[in-house]
Amino acid sequence: MTWHEEGYVFDGGTSTYTTTGDCVKSGYLWRRMSDPTNDIESGNWGQFAWPYYRLAEIYLNYAEACNEKPNRDEAEALRYVNLVRERSGLNKMEVAYPEVLGNKELLRVLLRKERMVEMAFEGHRYPDLRTWMIAEQEMNEPYYTRNVAAKTYEASWERTKDVFPGRRVFQSKHYFFPIHQKQLSEMVNITQNYGW
Q: What is the tens place of the pLDDT at every residue in 43-68?
């Protein structure tokens, strides 16, 4: 391993993936929820916080509910998504996307994207895709990642599907878990979930 101006470059690439197969598969680590005084280089790991439920999640859930309820309340939905955006230093939703006003479907799409970015790396994406019943469109694709096998720093930022071969597979039956046979045997009026 050698140090370059851009960071560590490992023998055979820019990460340990090429020698050990071990790496963060997305190619990204994050500093969120960690004490900014942590100095990992000197072994001071400090404190890490992992909230189970964040205020931003409550706001985004509420904004989504306001957009989807029968008596749609667009103003309230925008108010709460904008609280999340404001904390991040972003423009209000209706300023960044003026075409969202009066457009329920576009607001739905933008709220989902906002949630994807805000809740990144917190374990919400897979359940969200299943809740919205769009996992079949979003999950059936190759494993994309940064090019952790790259030989240069610049090339390591390229998006690739060649590092981890294969595809993610999501079938309609994956929206529900299978019911264990023991439970099916005990409750004779229950049928197995679709596809299992």
A: 777 777 777 889 999 999 999 999 99
